Amino acid sequence: MLLFFSMLGKKKLSENFLSFSLAQNTALGTILFKVTATDEDSGLAGVVSYSIDEVVPDDSSLFKINRSGEVLLNGFLNYANKSTFYQLTINASDGGGELYGQAVVQSTSAFAFITIEDVADLDPDFLNLPYQTSVKEHTPVGTSVFKVQAVDGDRGIKDKIFYSIKETNAPGLFDIDRNNGVITVKGEIDREALLNITATVNLQVMAEEENPNIHGQNAMTSAEVIIKILDINDNKPKFYNCMESECDFSDSSVANSFTGDIQEHASGGVPVANMTITVRDQDEGNNAKFNLRLEGEDKDAFSVSPTTAMSSAQVQILVKSPSEVNYESKTMMRVEIVASDVANETYYCSTATVTIALIDMNDNRPEFKQETYQLQVNENSPNGKALMTITASDPDTADEGKITYRLLPDSILPYFEVGKESGTIFVKNSTLLDRETRPIYFATLQAIDTANNTGTAVLEITLIDENDETPEMARDYYIDFVEEGKDGHLQLQIQAFDKDEPGTNNSEIRYRIEPSEFSDNFTINEKTGMLENNGPLDREAIDPSLNGAIKLIVTAYDLGFPSMSSSVNVTINVEDINDNKPVFAPDTYDFSVNETEKGAFVGLVFAQDADQTEIHNRISFSITDGSFGNFIIRTFYDKDLKRYRGNITVDPDVELNFEAVKNYTLTVEATDLGLQEDRARVKVKVLDVNDKPPTFEDGSLKDLGVKENTTGLGVVRNITGTDEDTKHSLVYHLLSVKCLCNLNVSADDCEKDWFRLELSGSLLVNNDFVIDYEQCHEVQMEIQVVDILTEKGVNHSSPGILKIHIIDINDNAPQFISSETLFVVVPEVAAKDSEVGRVTAKDRDSGENKVIVFDVLTVEFIHSNGDKETMSNLFYADTVKEIEDYAGIIRTSNTLNTNLKGRYLVTVGAKDKGVPSLNTSIQLDVYTVDSSFRVQLEFRSSIQEIDANIDTIKGVMVSATKATVHIVKIESKEQAQRASEFTVLVAYFVYPNGSAIIPSNIITILQEDRTAVDVLYRYGLQYIESGEKESKEIDPVYYAVAGLAAGFVILLVIMITTLVCTQRSYKRKLKAANAVKSAAFMGADNRHTGQVVPGTNKYTMEGANPVLNLNIDSATDLGFDEEGSNIDRVSLDSLDENLDINMSEKENMHMMMIQEEDEENPNEPHYIEPLGAALAQHRKKDNGETHTFTNPSLDTTDL
């Protein structure tokens, strides 16, 4: 049964292994991948069913597989709360059937590795909430106040967080850094301007993620930051024209001047009337405390009340010196009230001017007998009780009996009243007479006459005490702290006050402790109220729920009758000391943990400290021995069991290795903050997990050599791997096969599978193919060993390369690779050891098997008539090593016969050095060029000049003939009839196909190349003839024919001269001669091939014109008739003048009309010969450009 994955877009490690990633928000029911199994059985045994055998970690309900092999998501993924990695083992089973007589169900497995990827679906979270801080007012702008911090709720994404202030109750005061969340001061902070919000700024801080979440929105959250504005002393007291209870303390109420009035000679302590002054300092606490004083010219007549106040106060100006308040001396009096800050009186002070108007009084006023009267009355006396009758006398008789009385100030009237006419002082409201509240009252009793003149007396009314007050404790409750143990000593002063009259039994106080659970542990001095402990206290003896607090009730009572008492709660906090050490329960533990799981949970240890406070019973765990850096322990407090637990885990950066260490014995230490400690022993057993990738054994992939052309070798190498895990199953996979072919250094995919790798690791030679070194000399197999039982991590080794070197055998004969088998040799030129041909061969084998040696096997000469002749010792072969091939150079053993005409048939053999040796042969055609193709060129130059320019001469001849020029010799010769030296160059002109140019064609070919003609003429080329000379007898007829021809020429000259003289003037004849230079060159069909007669341009052919080398047409005349005649043509081979005519124009040149000139031109020069005049006209036509060819052996008469 074959089981494989078929899912695009997933990373398929092999046919049975699949690895891919999956987003945590993948929809329920999504098809993740599909497995397909094939079973070649039939019937029920061929029916395949699928199941998920195992899900690691165990969450079998998360995935399901249907009947078609599709694996679907059956539950919801969660990156934060569930696993981030799953391994699925998928089983494919058939329907079962009989195998060898037994019922068997066949099955196979495949593995899928799924990595869960987090998605952005959670809002960010603020850390360390709540946020509260404070800052002083007027803190400089830019000062850091506080830092908030938020993190991405999606721990797998960790998006960047940006911060902003969403809302605030005090805009413009604070700013926040967008990137790091630091809150800084943005604007000027004035606490007094923020009193409407109680000097507390609330900021709504927003944290927003940088990138959109899966809903397309930027996730965000907010938190509140509370900033308390602290006060500094930056305000001075100010005066307000309003009552303290009614004043709004606005800027409109601020005043610097006030007015009031008072009667002259008003009694001391009488306040100035009709004036309201309030002073306030807007600072807080001690910063708002201020002093008041009077300044100015009348400051000694008055006083200010109060002299010291906090925050705000109602201010009164009181009469201090009545005598100075005299209407007759001053009608208006002025004082200045100075309010100064206690902390800084110099810089923080204010001044207000008070103008006081004095009211005029009657000069004779009623007078009392005493200036001061002292009265007494019991507190709580009934209404209407008379204290005393006080009367005044007025010397004015008109006022006798008409004096009326009244009490001042008005504030005394709620307590006492006076008979208007009798002057009797009565109790007005007994409920207000409380000695403890106010033991003495001062009042002014006024006696008013009819003129409203007033006399005054001061009443000092003292209340007599009654035992009507309960002792009052100085505090609502007492709290003190004392350390447990022998060093703890408590001294707590309990204090009570009785408002009854001091020094009496009504105010004499005693103390006692009310009975309770811990009252016997303490005593109190009944007179002083000093509370102390009897002996050492034990915090652990107190119920832990009381948190060390002992509650006592202390009672204070007076000695009056009836006795009055009150009680107060006293809390004694017994402070814990570190007098107990941590204790493990139990002190030994045994745990186990899987290897390779970073941060894996190992187990819990427990310890407890009997001390009751956290600072002393707080335990921290540590691993002091046996961990070797592999384990960590974290401390947690168990509130329910009131003990500490140590959570032992594997270090998140460490993977345990079962193969290295199987057991650990840890020493765990529990230590409190006082460094008292206890130890426990923890044994940790490491459980093996198949997590190690397999590796190849040393030498398993060592290079291997296999001979080519061998079969039936079977297993040539057993590849083996190792795995450190205790439970493993290794298989071997061939990843790729590369071949190095034709000695290339880079490997490509092999065309044939010469080798086959079994799952067991056996490497076999594939008998379906034949190994051929010449096709590929090295096979590189990329192999991987896979552990199919891997539970975690990589299940395969790193790919290894096995190099199989193909060993060459001598199975290839040398092969000729040169395509040229035809060569040419010039026997006259070819000296001994001259190269006449070359062959190239290669051998596909290697080493000595590919080394080639060449040899000439046979030589046979085939004559031009077809006859064959076997020859020997004419040629031999030189072997030369080239880059990749071998060359055989065929050379002459001796000089060759120059008279032989035909070709040599040379058989060349190539043999390698292998054992046994292999060879092959090739036949070469070597054509000979005999002396009949010998060409002789004669130059009118010295041999030294020709030798110096031989390369140029040879080059233009090669370019013109397109043939190889073989120069036989260069020699100097002299002629008796000529005084100058000339040089003869003998050469052969041979084409690559073995044919040569006959001497008669050389002249024609060279004349067609204008450049060659110019160069050769420049070096004095005279004529070209065959180099092969034959001796002939001169026939006497030849002389007879020559005589007749000479006579004919003489006769023709005489006739022409007579005709010219009789018909035209001599000048007309010169004009006719101009036509000669205008003639076109002859066509290719009019050219003649034949021997040149030395010293002339005459060809030895019948019908040739001895002057112009043209066939004479009987239809043409000599061209002297001006009305019409054919124009003579000039031969290209004329040596007297080189016309400047392009070679392309020489085939067909139109005749040019010659304009007739005036015969009578006295300026025309006189020429002796017609040719001189013709050449002069030619130069004149060519704008003075001269074209000459000087040949001293010829003159115009010869022509």
From TrEMBL:
List the protein's name. Answer: Cadherin-related family member 2
Write out the ranges of the annotated region (Disordered). Answer: 1178-1199
GO function terms (MF aspect): calcium ion binding
Subunit details? Part of the IMAC/intermicrovillar adhesion complex/intermicrovillar tip-link complex composed of ANKS4B, MYO7B, USH1C, CDHR2 and CDHR5. Interacts with MAST2. Interacts (via cytoplasmic domain) with USH1C and MYO7B; required for proper localization of CDHR2 to microvilli tips and its function in brush border differentiation.
SMART domains, per the entry: CA
A Pfam family matched in the record: Cadherin
Which regions span the lipid bilayer? 1037-1061
Biological process terms from the Gene Ontology for this record are: axonogenesis; cell-cell adhesion mediated by cadherin; epithelial cell differentiation; homophilic cell adhesion via plasma membrane adhesion molecules
Domain Cadherin per the UniProt entry, residue ranges: 14-126, 127-239, 254-368, 369-473, 473-584, 585-696, 698-816, 818-939
Please explain the role this protein plays, according to its UniProt record: Intermicrovillar adhesion molecule that forms, via its extracellular domain, calcium-dependent heterophilic complexes with CDHR5 on adjacent microvilli. Thereby, controls the packing of microvilli at the apical membrane of epithelial cells. Through its cytoplasmic domain, interacts with microvillus cytoplasmic proteins to form the intermicrovillar adhesion complex/IMAC. This complex plays a central role in microvilli and epithelial brush border differentiation. May also play a role in cell-cell adhesion and contact inhibition in epithelial cells.
Q: How does it sit in the membrane?
A: Single-pass type I membrane protein
> In its keyword annotation, does this UniProt entry include Signal?
yes
Give the compositionally biased regions (Polar residues): 1186-1199
Q: Which PANTHER family match?
A: CADHERIN DOMAIN-CONTAINING PROTEIN (PTHR24027:SF411), CADHERIN-23 (PTHR24027)
One Gene Ontology term, aspect cellular component:
apical plasma membrane
The reply to whether Signal figures as a keyword in the UniProt entry is yes
Q: Where in the cell is it found?
A: Apical cell membrane; Cell junction; Cell projection, Microvillus membrane
Can you tell which superkingdom this protein's organism belongs to? Eukaryota
UniProt keyword annotations, A-Z: Calcium, Cell adhesion, Cell junction, Cell membrane, Cell projection, Differentiation, Membrane, Phosphoprotein, Repeat, Signal, Transmembrane, Transmembrane helix
